[in-house]
Amino acid sequence: MSKKAAEHHKHAATHHAEAAKHHTAAATHHEAGHHEKAAHHAHTAAAHTEHATEHTSHARKAHAEEHGTK
Question: Would you give the distance in Å from CA 61 to the centre of its chain?
Fold first, then answer.
């Protein structure tokens, strides 16, 4: 795997971990009836998921650039 792809996978993993933390916080706030705080964390989790997806896409592209012509 190329260094470029590896870095994107590491960034994706970090964003997935952050998304998980925010989903957990959203659940806690929903259970407590703090729906505005829950919505904030849910929105932030979704944003981290988008970042993770983007990095995953870049990792796939880096892999294709390295191995796609063989």
Answer: 17
Say yes or no to pLDDT of 69 above 90.
Answer: no
- Closest by Cα among 47, 45, 5, 4 to 26: 45
Report the 10 Å Cβ neighbour count for 70: 4
Q: For 7-60, what is each residue's pLDDT tens digit?
A: 999 999 999 999 999 999 999 999 999 999 999 999 999 999 999 999 999 999
* Tokens (6 digits) for 59: 């990792």
Residues in the chain: 70
User: Could you identify the residue written with the tokens 């892999």?
Assistant: 63
Q: Write down the number of H helices and E strands in the chain.
A: 2, 0
Q: How far is CA 15 from CA 1, 10, 49, 70, in A?
A: 20, 9, 6, 32
Q: Could you tell me which of 57, 61, 46 has the C-alpha nearest to residue 16? A: 46
